[in-house]
């Protein structure tokens, strides 16, 4: 568990720095939101690490899960406001090879990290670890949405694609925040298997 948390924190710090820098340079609401999501992931991983340094980690489960939920809500609020401002002003981002590169890399790295955390969360019976894994999966969705938005803008000049991608991310963040806040944390892989059974 410690290795996963340490790697997640390190990767997300680097991802946040690169994505926010690329987002500012390209004036991309979605890319800045993506970088801020990485900051939320770092805070989430730190919260999990803190919880498991306590003598009785289960006692701090609810507080940790709710902290993760609040982080989702804060991310959703920022991304929504920034995307709406961009749409109203009709300002699209510049072409960002760096942004495309970091989102593509996250599409490879984050699913693996999420899988490890889901497995660990199940073994420990920890909702906070599963909530953190959902945060990593949100990053996968976010990476995909931002990547597509940046590609559409670069190839076709669709300036609004970036803001639409950002609003999709905000909606996902709100949903994940509600589920984390209420403690309704279920592995997305379980959801997929249930859908297949139906």
Indicate the topology.
Elements: H1 2-26, H2 29-51, H3 61-89, H4 97-124, H5 127-156, H6 161-182, H7 188-197
Helix pairs in contact: 1-2, 1-4, 2-3, 2-5, 2-6, 3-5, 3-6, 4-5, 5-6
As a percent range, the share of helical residues equals: over 70%
- Give helix and strand order, one letter per element, not per position: HHHHHHH
Class by alpha and beta content: mainly alpha
Major sheet size, sense and barrel closure: none
Protein architecture, described:
The chain is built from 7 helices and no strands. The protein starts with a helix and ends with a helix. It is mostly helical and 198 residues long. It has helices at residues 2-26, 29-51, 61-89, 97-124, 127-156, 161-182, 188-197. Helix content is 84%, strand content 0%.
Summarize this structure briefly.
The protein is an all-alpha fold and 198 residues long. The chain is 84% helix and 0% strand.
Key terms for this structure?
mainly alpha, elongated, 198 residues, single chain, 7 helices, disordered C terminus
